[in-house]
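ARCHIVE CARD
Drawer: 12
Card no.: 0347
Subject: one protein chain, sequence and derived structure
Cross-reference: see card 0346
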Amino acid sequence: MKRLTKFNNSYAQIDEEFKFKKGFSLPIYRISSYHTLVQYIGYAKYLNRNIGNVYLRGQHKMYDSLIPSIFRNISNSGGFSNRNQHIGQFVAQCAQKMKFIADLDNIVREPVLQHYGIGTRWIDLVDNVWVALWFGIHEWHTQIYTREYKNVVPRKGGPNEYMYLLLVCSDGVNEDNHIPGLYKGKDTYTVDLRKAAPSILLRPHAQHALLMRSRHLETVEDSDLADRIVGIAKISVDDCVEWIGTNGLTSARCLFPPANFDHGYGVLLEQTPHESNFVRDYGSIYTITY
């Protein structure tokens, strides 16, 4: 992969050199023009055009790793193995209870459930810049009872409020002949849920959902996709709001459609297996309100 270590533009200044746990560093570019942001993303895609596809991930802050949610805060191999096993059992239970989950290809079921609140072995990405920015400028208010409930709210802007846009390169460029939407590389799998799942599951389609995971999951370190990051942009929250707006196709109601439009979500709310001790490590099929 080719990382963006040099990018000359008057609207892009190096903010800091960020070091990852895997031992490499990348400059974080503070970008103040949407033209420059598009160019920055395009440059990463162009540099890596013979290597893979560069996708986007919006975050509130930077972390020194890019580990799937269920493998965070694990200190030993036993915990890693247990969570691997448990999420596999949970996905199998969902397939037994819900025909539309059973009808999905086996490898696609887990990414779908991730988009409805279950923590899995996959990392969320998109190929749409305004959706990536949207996730960087919104946050969750969470309440946990025996289930987890969340409402999404805009972040407060201001002179010191920023979001981070990760540019992540997938080597999954060869589409599986038997599983549309699954792209296999030497090191990663990438799933495009717009092809792999029907639009009865509306949320992934609204969010331009892509997910990526390592093909090798023997240890927590294997699951860390930080070495796939080829560029980092830092953007003011206020600029993002001005650039993409907050209504229509960039509203929370669009990106998290209610169950009367997202029929798959309605079925998941009613029929997903529930264990009260599952929520802390794996999340739940939660209710989103605005």
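Annotation on reverse: Residues 77-97 form the longest helix (21 residues). The radius of gyration is 19 Å.
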